[in-house]
Design goal:
Layout (H helix, E strand, L loop, with lengths): L1 H7 L2 H26 L29 H5 L14 H22 L8 H4 L1 H28 L4 H17 L2 H7 L5 H29 L3 E13 L3 E5 L7 E4 H4 L6 E11 L2 E11 L3 E3 L2 E3 L7 E10 L6 H14 L1 H25 L10 H28 L1
Helix pairs in contact: 2-4, 2-6, 4-6, 6-7, 6-13, 7-9, 7-11, 9-11, 9-12, 11-12, 11-13, 12-13
């Protein structure tokens, strides 16, 4: 028992427990972000509640991990099932925070004195930067899984935050590069990573548009397609949209057009049946009539097939990679693109082999996020080995 108390009281174990618990608490907040941010809801108000019955969750029923297990994944108010995603986000965030703490504790120390004792402020800033990035990657991944978008609050906010952390703690870049760098040079690395990450993915997006051009969404039964001011959504039997595509990703090139054959069209003050619809950035052609998109504030169509100019990667992925580059530098963006491409090919092949209907298509954001996490926890060493051998050749 005495040995256990000594072990539990050690700095490493104590801080490991603290970081894991704190990460789980942050994960609980990330669940709020994941649910509300893409729906343009406030993450502060109202307080945590069941989206089905509106039951306000008291603090003692909002304990990360424990509550979900204790209530067997069900709401205490209406007994409706709570998705396992809530538990997974809390657990993954806790493990991410623990991993960031251990990375700083072991790797940055390089076998020498504990970095939190030698340089407490620097070590704390680097750890805070890593957990901020990891939290953003987790939130972005689950939002992209559900909505096929990555909100600007996470991508553009990540660019600004990454640059700020780089300026405040240059070791965020120097530790991975194995060299001492100044605050100014770290900011240059951050801006270069931002530019490089965005430029590389932008080039891939443009190439994908040119090569693949269109994607068809089809259903056995007619679904409701809604054209709002900022995005196109497709909804089946439920109230929530099954798919949401921002116009900035659809109308990417001149000539990009959404085409469909509508069983029913509802717009302005009239309804049409059995007609063709073609919408681009400059015009909306409905049957024999043509309108300016700005004149149509809301348009609903019932159809079983929509042809959309879209590819695996969208402009949100460009900003997402730029945010990663702001935190980790240009090497991380190149590594993330290569690693995510390999991972995407493997997962895509498996989905094609086991799901003949093409269901469960995964957006590209999660692949990028996984690749960035791989870089943080060891991928940079693989890069250094490859780059060193490449330089010799």
């Amino acid at each position: 028992m005495a040995d256990f108390v000594v072990w539990l009281g050690s700095t490493l174990v104590l801080f490991s427990i603290i970081f894991f618990m704190f990460g789980c608490i942050v994960g609980s907040f990330l669940n709020v972000v994941i649910h509300r941010l893409p729906r343009e809801m406030s993450v502060a108000n109202p307080p945590s509640h069941c989206p089905q019955c509106g039951y306000i969750i008291p603090w003692y029923q909002n304990i990360p991990l424990v509550t979900w297990l204790w209530q067997r994944g069900r709401c205490a108010g209406c007994d409706v099932s709570i998705p396992v995603r809530y538990f997974l986000v809390e657990l993954l965030t806790g493990l991410a925070f623990l991993g960031a703490w251990l990375l700083v504790h072991y790797h940055f120390a390089a076998g020498a004195e504990d970095p939190f004792l030698k340089q407490p402020i620097v070590a704390a800033l680097v750890t805070l930067a890593l957990v901020t990035l990891l939290g953003g990657l987790i939130a972005s991944t689950f939002i992209d899984f559900e909505h096929f978008i990555i909100p600007d609050e996470l991508t553009k906010g990540g660019m600004v935050t990454g640059a700020a952390f780089s300026l405040a703690a240059p070791q965020l870049h120097g530790a991975f590069l194995g060299e001492e760098i100044s605050h100014g040079m770290a900011l240059v690395y951050s801006l270069l990573g931002m530019a490089c990450g965005g430029a590389i993915v932008y080039a891939v997006v443009r190439m994908g548009k040119a090569m693949f051009g269109k994607q068809t969404y089809s259903a056995e039964q007619p679904v409701r397609v809604t054209f709002g001011q900022h995005a196109m959504t497709m909804s089946g039997e439920g109230e929530e949209p099954d798919l949401e595509l921002p116009y900035e990703e659809i109308f990417y090139r001149e000539g990009d057009t959404i085409t469909l054959h509508a069983e029913k069209v509802e717009y302005i003050d009239r309804c049409l049946w059995d007609c063709k619809v073609a919408i681009d950035a400059q015009s909306a052609r409905i049957g024999e009539e043509e309108f300016k998109p700005s004149d149509i504030k809301h348009l609903e169509v019932m159809t079983s097939e929509v042809v959309v100019p879209r590819e695996a990667m969208g402009f949100g992925d460009v900003k997402f990679m730029a945010a990663i580059g702001a935190f980790l530098g240009w090497q991380a963006t190149v590594f993330s693109l290569m690693f995510s491409a390999v991972l995407g090919a493997i997962v895509g092949s498996l989905l094609m082999a086991f799901r003949k209907d093409g269901a469960n298509i995964i957006p590209y954001g999660p692949y990028i996020a996984f690749a960035a996490i791989a870089w943080i926890f060891g991928g940079y060493e693989l890069w250094e080995w490859w780059w060193g051998n490449f330089g010799k050749n």
